[in-house]
Amino acid sequence: MNQSISFSHVKELLYLLGIVLSAGMLSGYIAKILKLPDIVFLLFAGILLGVNGLSIIDIKVNSVLNQLILIFGSCYILFDGGASVRIHIIKKVWPTLLLISTLGVLITTFISAIAAQFFIGLPFIVALLLGSTIASTDPATLIPVFKQTKVPEKIAQLVISESAFNDAIAAILTMTLFTMAIGESAFNLSQSIIDLLQQSFVGMLAGGSLGYLSVSIISHEKYGFLREYGPLVTLMTVASAFLAADNFHASGFMAVFIFGIVLGNKDVFGFKTNNKEQEKLDDFILTTSLIMRIFIFILLGSQVNFSLLSKYFWPAFATVLVFMFIARPLTVFLCALPNRKANWTLKELILMCWTRETGVIPGALASMLVGLNAPHADIIAAVTFMAILITITIQPLTTGWLVKKMKF
Fold first, then answer.
1. Are the beta carbons of 250 and 197 closer than 8 angstroms?
2. Which of 68, 83, 255, 298 counts the highest number of beta carbons within 10 A?
3. What is the pLDDT of residues 274-321, one digit of tens each?
4. Class of domain 62-405 (CATH, top level)
5. Rg (CA), the chain
6. Burial class (CB in 10 A: 0-12, 13-18, 19+), 95
7. What span, in angstroms and rounded, lies between the C-alpha atoms of 43 and 24?
8. Which of 251, 364, 355 is nearest to 298 (CA)?
């Protein structure tokens, strides 16, 4: 008897899940032994298993499954980044943090766009789209690096908080530029800024409201009737916050990030969770975030277009060098120096320039743009992949050396 087509698809999907998770676990194990971020090994695993290697994984970039993984995975990782931010830390460095997470994203986007237009020949609006895609840093990469290297606490707190905040800002900017690049709206600087602020504010409102409600029903002493179902509540709230904000044409990415901040700082709002329930929730968030990271980066690696990367290798490489050695230093110095109270030293600023790995959100955004058929999306994906590969292999390996060399 012939099996139904739907049953065959189910078996293929289960087989794919097993392959991806197995490759993810092996990559994580190797990364742990070598004391390196697991993302680079996940990328290589995706390349090996993808159409450029063994052809075991062949998920089209415009498929429903691919978009589901990228959108929800990005949301959950942003939520996890928000949950890792501590309000008492933000208070110490907030002027620098505010500037580097907002103005800094714009500076990085603009300088990277100029480089992309000069070296690759992209139209400027598309070059800006590329710049915004790679503008954010990656908490998932930075946190393991800081745990393995004795980076001064002041710098670690700022850069980790920056990496959590600028993911949401860069995601909003990327989607705004995307609508301009496909011709749905004309470029208007003042209107673009207003739209960006509006999307951010409504996203914050949606994330804060749903986040407070979610924390109430799992942590409130009297009304916490779903205390035992904390992991499921957070999972549902991530999806709900994204959809609620998106329905109001606001940033779902900002909404899930703010929800993470509310959950991660629930003690500030007067909520308490017993140790057992908190450990269960923390383990769930950690595991789910890991699974999302595995799927995003293995999929990204499996979909890399090496013929295009080879075609644009040197222009893309030059763009990434400008991104690392011009855009980042200018961003750090222009955003940190106005904060006189922080008393940043030259050594601290130089170290901040070097700790800016590109990771999860840029990779997800690049793949989303390919799936949405954005103009020159394949080139954007190729440059993003190169930026990820270079920054997460070279910078983590040399951060410890730089710390010792500068005698912190």
1. no
2. 255
3. 778 788 888 999 899 889 889 988 988 888 778 878 888 999 999 999
4. mainly alpha
5. 21
6. middle
7. 10
8. 364
